Amino acid sequence: MPELGFQGRRLAQARRARSMTQRALAQLIGKTSQAVSQYEKGSTTPSQEVVERIVKFLQVPVELLYRPWVDHGSDKPVFYRSMSAATKRARDAAESKLEWIDDCVSYFESMLDLPEFSPFDMEIPSDPLLITDELIEEAAATVRAAWDVPAGPIDNMIGLLERHGVFVFMMPLGADTLDALSVDWNEAHPYVVVGTDQGNACRWRFDCAHELGHLVLHRNIDSSLLATPAVCKLIETQAHRFASALLLPEEEFVDSLYTVSLDGYRDLKPYWKTSISAMIRRTRDLGIIDDAGYRNLYISISRRRWRKIEPFDEEMAPERPALARKCLEVISTSLVGSEDEFNKMTALPEDFMMTLFGSFRRAANSPKGQIISLPMRSRK
């Protein structure tokens, strides 16, 4: 048994990560909901026998429940795609997993010199009501210029984020109402998590661009505003517009659009690596078609049965994150750290670690477009 005392907040974190209520856990371990609540608040300490039952049913290492609590900058808002539809339990589970991710990245930061995310040189109002479409277009163009993105399609959206300090993870989020989420608890290394419960290569690229939109446009927003459904809807619309402008820059996209028809969009999809529906919306946003034309194109999409599965969705290979796996690979082959030490320091569940790093963690060859060099942090 670890020497440190039982950490009630770690229990609450693990329970939420497993999408379990206090009542459900209480029934499994043969205790009352009140007892579980007291364990989590630190009012009482469970016996060793109860701890063993907790570990069994939550499927976490016992060391996690004794690992000192670390604050995770939770005053910063977490942005969810499909924000208004996400249930509280789904959000709690996602945020607990974000806290586990934060523990991993904190260890990487202590060992490696990592690329850092830097704010862009532009003024973004903290009130989303003051963010105009013109400002969003400018923000997307600023990002492309600051990050030296060549004209035309972005070759690898995940690789672009990771080369500039954003940690990207892909995992099931256990809820169809959660497509993706992002947070900048760690301002130097924000996190983007893409839900793989549903979707495809184009959708996940767009999710990443959408979450970058939140990190650029909404990093200074008052989190209390997110309790207002109208504000949630507005910032989602703004992040969507940003993603469209980033992935489909106006001049190059319009030049490539030889016909405003489903066949024309279909031909462009492999080039822009963006869904037909996203290109149609971009065409409307740019004023090339009006609302009536937009509706007619969507009627045609339904007639062709492209609502759920578009052409090329099953052929296009998804992009995959590489930065976190590269961090672990470098540490595992260094003289000052090891994978065993990483596992000991984080004390996270094996299934979660498998989700983040895969079953063959040390052979994380970067996908096309991702060149990641991570020197060890100098130690005096």
In words, what does this structure look like?
The protein has 380 residues and is mainly α. It folds into 2 domains: 8-66, lambda repressor-like DNA-binding domains (434 Repressor (Amino-terminal Domain), Orthogonal Bundle); 79-303, Arc Repressor Mutant, subunit A (Orthogonal Bundle), CATH 1.10.10. The chain has helices at residues 8-17, 22-29, 33-41, 48-58, 88-111, 133-146, 157-163, 201-217, 229-247, 250-256, 262-272, 276-285, 291-303, 323-332, 339-346, 350-357, and strands at residues 79-81, 167-171, 180-183, 191-195. The protein has a 4-stranded mixed sheet with strand order 1-3-4-2, sandwiched between helices. β3 and β4 (191-195) form a beta hairpin. α2 (22-29) crosses α3, α8 crosses α9 (229-247) and α12 runs antiparallel to α13. The longest helix has 24 residues, at 88-111.
